[in-house]
Amino acid sequence: MKSKKYLWIMTIMVVLLAGCGGGGGQDEPPAPTSVPPTSAPAATPIPSAKDHMDQGMEYIEQGQYEKAIAELKKAIELEPDNSDAHRNLGTVYGELNQWEEAAAAYEQAIELDPDFGEAYGDLVGAYFYLERIPEAIEAGEKAIELAPDYATAHNNLGAVYANQGDLAAAIAEWEKAVELDPSDPMPHNNLGLVYNRQDEFDMAIVEYKEAIELDPDYALAHFNLGLLYAQQGVADNAVIEFETYLQLRPDAPDREKVEGWIAELESQDAEYVNAGGGYSLRYPEGWYYTEDGTRVSIAESKEGYEAPALESPLVTLLVMPLAQTAQGFGLDESAAPTEFLQVMTERVAAEVEEMEGLQIAGYSAAVAATSGTVMDSPFRGNMIMILVEERIFLAEAIAPPDQWDAFRPTFVDMINSLSFFQPQE
What we know:
With about 425 residues, the protein is α+β, with helices and mostly antiparallel strands. It has helices spanning about 50-60, 65-80, 85-95, 100-110, 115-130, 135-145, 150-165, 165-180, 185-195, 200-215, 220-230, 235-250, 255-265, 300-305, 320-330, 335-345, 400-415; strands at about 270-275, 280-285, 290, 295-300, 315-320, 350-360, 365-375, 375-390, 390-400, 420. The chain contains 17 helices and 10 strands. α7 runs antiparallel to α8 (about 165-180).
């Protein structure tokens, strides 16, 4: 890092000492006692260029950028050739997104000190925002030549490469920035962005989380992680990250848009995953569910589920081995889903209004419109069977007759959200 030049102003205090002379003969009157002179008030020290620059840096740390600009300009008035002051002024303009002014300040620093590699590295960012891409690349290469260990130069040059679509070069620069300055969260955030663009979502999440671990107040990393979670349908996590972003940036210009996203995400369904059964689906946010192995019950509330009579919609999900189920039903394993479903409806004494075969999530399935009585309460509903490789997935939804028509679309959405995977033991 280039050392700073300091101007010291020395105030020399001159102390005047008054001497007292002795008397002459006895006839001379004694000399009067001398009265010491009143001390003049000490002169107020005049702030030096270094004082103004130090004060400006403090203002930058405090986010008081206009005051920082005023102090740095005073430093430059006292020392026009102070390249550090010009560079720091460029930094403040960058914080205010005043990129023309930032570029001019960095350029002045370089004119005063042509070997100022760090100023070249900072200039890359200003040129990038001004869309002066060829000059940004040239400045970045010069920065790395003069100051190869300046991590910001690598980070800024990586952003230029990413903007040009050269993701491999961008990753290389950001990884170098991380190597040079492991405490800087910015290159981790940038790596997360490029991994997201490459659909390497797990790696993107790792990088965003690393950025946040290094700086929990890094609002942009929370925002980007929230976007990725929203893209993946992980609504709860997305909401947390977006809310954190708004807490860190209460005056964010996109606040209204982000609040809209939060409201939309909070209205979305939650996700349920049954590892043993090898499936996942989405269900209404805030609903209650209970599971026993691969058997799951989902209800509007715990009270509704535990009620002695059917008072509200109830969904039951169950995964059964195909071979054992076929044997128990007296069917061949190759039987059609409608055959399995016919036996099941008979065993639970449900009346079948209509039944049809169809495909669900890419597998052969059957659905029946049912009605009957359960817990001494009448119901209407649907029962679905899906043959998934060596297992059978059963879903049954029932509701009081006057609630079924309103609930049925919700159940259909749940079934349409089904995703199957290899069961985990």
